[in-house]
Amino acid sequence: MVKHYRPPGKKNQGNAARFITRSKAIKQLQVSLPLFRKVCILKGIFPREPKKKVKGNHHTYYHLKDVSYIQHEPLLERLREIRAYQHKVKKAEAKKNPDRATLLRQRSPAYKLDKIVLQRYPKFLDALRDLDDCLTMVHLFAALPAIEGCIEVKRIHNCRRLAHEWQAYISRTHRLRKVFVSVKGIYYQAEVKGQKVTWLAPHPLQQVVTDDDDFNIMLNFLEFYEALLAFANCHLYHSINVKYPPILDPRLEALAADHYALSRYFDANSRSSAWDSQYSSLSGSGKVESQQIGPLVDESELRLAQLQNQLSSSEPGALMHLVEDVPGEDEEDNDTRECKKLFKDMKFFLNREVYRDSLLFVIPAFGGIVSWQGDGAPFEEDDDSITHQIIDRPRQDGKICGREYVHPQWVYDCVNARIILPTGDYLVGRDPPPHLSPFVDNDSFETEGVINPAEAEAKAAKEKWKKMKAHEKQHHHELIMELEGITDSSSISNIDNLSADREEPDHDYEQVEEDNRIMSLFQLSRQIRGSIESMRISRQRKKRLDDVIRQRRRNVRGT
């Protein structure tokens, strides 16, 4: 059979058939480069690295199936319609028709990412595994300033709202596990539904935005992350029978007390759910009454707003102490119970120089009650029930008796150690102990005044061994004196006192020298350590060989 001739470069096999360059993908989809990047980010499609790059190393390659997957996406057609609609707005502005341009902007089409979030994360646990970058990006934009033509104020407020809602859930359910303050920011780690979620929140400083940052790509990621975090917050709030989105007190929102407003919302929602259950049990004809009233006003939202207004600002236990059980909440594990009782029966007050948002998030997450210096606070500084006051600079006025004045690092170290540390090292004016990272194992971390159970057992075993050694020596001396016929009680008592008072050395100097040698090796590079170790082994072998030769020579001389 005659084979057909196939010219070179026309093969549709291997990498040439599986991968496509970015320029060809754009031509196939008939979109611009920014729109192509946006769709790829929203759909979770990233460039590939084929083993053999057919078109050269200077091209970006995508899988052909991914491009075909984008081609049949309804969102792509919607984005094309929005782009065509924006041309109408520009045309109206060019014709100097501001009324038509304003009307077109008001009727601008929009799109939702609900189906895309569901496609990328069919299960909620899959979404929790990818929340690390999402939370970090949202917390970053919540701290950025608004830039005209780039970052809108509405988007910053939305990021701040989503971040506070996430923190309120973590604090309410006591799911926070680790906190570490670093140069980059504050690292948090929470455990939600068995998944560890770690994110980074920037310090509350003025952020300097440079021209080198490409905000177009970051805003595309942020658009998807906002939708993902909103779905995650909605699912988590409904899991504890709390309505979403929360209805906050506008007065507290104006005072930037979002954590406090969310805590009031949780407390009011728990009371309203209890009242709803009582009302449903007492009323037998609720459906008929609701039909008579009509769907003019949502009764649940109205009742919730009334409860928030009825809550007095002088009830810190009902407002900030978020430790009440919520119906429908998952069963608590041992870590949650331990975290829930760490700051139990403790009342904190924050001075104005202290970073308020972080401590308002951390302290209630471990069972404490907290207030601050400023408007909207649940209780004032002169409250007699305050046990700890967090300050970061020396006080000019006198101190109040009955409370501890500590550095903010004391709170974070207590959280990481899961115990209440002594406050002597955290007083203002003293250098606090090093703030170690809880994300690594710090076996050498020791705190003065804190007794570790393992160390206590080791110390007790050591004392018991010393007593047994003293009794053994005493019995040995008594046997020797009995054989020699010594019956002087004074000598026996003197020997006993000497044997009892004599203590064994606490340190094995050979072991200490070996430990020092090993620790000094760790400070060197791997290559130098290897050469030193090989030299030491060769010396040991040579010493053994010399001992064997000497022993043989002695045996020969003896014969």
UniProtKB/TrEMBL annotation:
It comes from the Eukaryota. Pfam families: BRCT_2, Pescadillo_N. Residues 338-428 form the BRCT domain. It is found in: Nucleus, Nucleolus; Nucleus, Nucleoplasm. This is Pescadillo homolog. HAMAP family: Pescadillo. Keywords: Nucleus, Ribosome biogenesis, rRNA processing. InterPro entries: BRCT_dom, BRCT_dom_sf, PES. The lineage of its organism: Eukaryota, Viridiplantae, Streptophyta, Embryophyta, Tracheophyta.
